[in-house]
Design brief:
Elements lengths: L1 H15 L2 H6 L2 E6 L1 E2 L4 E4 L2 E4 L2 E6 L4 E6 L6 E5 L2 E2 L2 H8 L3 H11 L3 E2 L6 E2 L11 E2 L1 E3 L2 E3 L1 H20 L3
Parallel strand pairs: 2-10, 7-11
Antiparallel strand pairs: 1-5, 3-4, 3-6, 6-7, 8-9, 12-13
Helix pairs in contact: 3-4
Length: about 160
């Protein structure tokens, strides 16, 4: 009887969920920290006060607005990135292709980068439009800063694959 139970458990687990779904789930908690603290954080229409930890679904993009009186409002989108965790685990475990599909559907194969502190800019003009920033590997940056960061990242990868220091 015992010889049947262990294989049955392994088989049932491999078909119930993917590796990433079982290990880390379909949600992730992100820390929102602002300078100065006590800013209002709006995530998908819900309001929080920084510093705060917010649990987000990994599967979808989240719109974030950061506001504090006397400071320029900041807007950005948090877009989850595929990080390969499900690929590694589901290749090793039995039922891998089913696990990959489960991880994809649940969003467990995606991850948000840890956010850097959000620095708010003081302003005396409360009617200024929000400062729209881009999330690049957890760092918020302007369009120009994003272009430079992406170019530097591509150069680093090219040098790595060519074996250059």
């Amino acid at each position: 009887m015992r010889t049947i139970i262990l294989p049955a458990i392994i088989l049932s687990v491999s078909f119930c969920g993917g590796c990433a779904t079982l290990l880390r789930g379909s949600q992730q908690t992100l820390a929102f920290r602002t300078v100065p603290p006590d800013a209002q954080i709006f995530v998908d229409g819900r309001t929080y006060t920084a510093p705060v930890d917010v649990t987000l679904r990994r599967k979808k993009m989240h719109e974030v607005i950061v506001w504090r009186e006397g400071y320029r409002t900041v807007e950005f989108a948090l877009d989850p990135q595929w990080d390969g965790v499900s690929l590694v685990g589901n290749i090793i475990l039995p039922g891998g292709s089913v696990g990959l599909i489960v991880d994809q559907v649940s969003g467990a194969d995606q991850n948000f980068f840890k956010l850097a502190k959000i620095d708010l800019v003081p302003t005396t003009q409360p009617d200024l439009p929000p400062l729209v920033l881009n999330d690049f590997k957890g760092h918020l940056m302007t369009d120009e800063q994003l272009r430079q960061a992406v170019a530097a990242d591509r150069l680093d990868r090219a040098q790595f694959f060519r074996g250059e220091p």
